[in-house]
Amino acid sequence: MTQGDLFCWVVTVCACIGLTGFTGWAITCLASDVKKRIEEMISGKKDRW
Description:
Blueprint: H1 3-48
């Protein structure tokens, strides 16, 4: 294994970890936003009817 191969491997691993972390964060953010909107819709409908 050359130094270039090692560098390539490290970059790939870091990119994978970063991407996974970002995706998880984005999904969590999106899910809480959607949940909030659904709750607002439900409570809004209850107020109206």
